[in-house]
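Forum: Protein Structure Q&A
Topic: Joint prediction for protein chains with partners

I've read a bunch of threads here and the consensus seems to be that you should model interacting components together rather than docking separate models afterwards. I'd like to see that in practice. Below is the full input, 305 residues plus whatever partners are listed. Could one of the regulars post the assembled result?
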Amino acid sequence: MKENKKKNNSDEKKKIDSDIKDLVKMRLSAIPKGFSVSVGSQGNFKVEDLLKHIEDEDEIGKSMVEIDMEFLRDLKNGKLYEQIAFDN
Amino acid sequence: MSKSLLITRPNYEITTRYLYVWNKKVIKEATDRGIDILDLEREKAIKNEFIGRIKKVNPVLILLNGHGDSDCVTGHNNKVLVKVGDNEEIFKGKIVYALACKSASHLGPKSVEAGATAFIGYLKDFVFFNDDSKIARPENDKVAGLFLDPSNRLSISLVKGNDVFNASKKSKKLFAENIKKLLNSDNDSRDFSSSFIPYLVWNMKHQVCYGDQDACF
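Posted by a regular:
Agreed with the consensus. Here's the joint model:
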């Protein structure tokens, strides 16, 4: 049982869950054509091209998924509100 | 004797072009304050020039704009300016702000170990969106401004003499203000600007400062 669990965790690291990919792609699709994103030294990418990068799970696709999922986790556990709360 | 700062501004593709243009505001602020500026722009942002100017003029504040990785920051044509294990001791006694991806994860702590007064940077990729119709005039790109104005706030706060801790705090506060502005912008169903929020949060939470938090320029 334990071994199975370990194996599943390892598989999760290799492949991005298709539901997660669809979610991130759907959220990015809200941005219309005509915008690009610079992601560090990975380059400048048209927003509509990001969907393919996510599908292909290349470095840029993985980065976009990581950023969006981290945001959604922070939103869910309330950390987002701590992060944007500035008293003065 | 007037204070001096060194700024690198490569400009060889879209990302560096935006940083190049946006930092004109920082240079203007510094100029207005009578600060000597060593502006390593475009092809001057190369290692020999970078090291030579620092050794000759000994600027207290160094603002790096360009690409980077966990152990380096690059200049013109993505050529390395400073790298862990090679020349991070060049930052000894200096306050450094690196708008360069991931450089705070390894170069930052190593620079402080090697004697840098403080190092502010990003643990992960710095991400920003731009409006393709504004590429010829980046300074008019309000979308890019959501991301790059908070970075400028940090540089300008340092130029104004704020300590490292407060300069970073002001930058994060502007990120937060932009996030809140976008959170309240979805009254119109055609408004997509809240889609940028995760990327603003990302930049804000991964900005860190090492070294002496009370250090001032």
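The domain at 4-211 of chain B is CATH 3.40.50.1460 (Rossmann fold).
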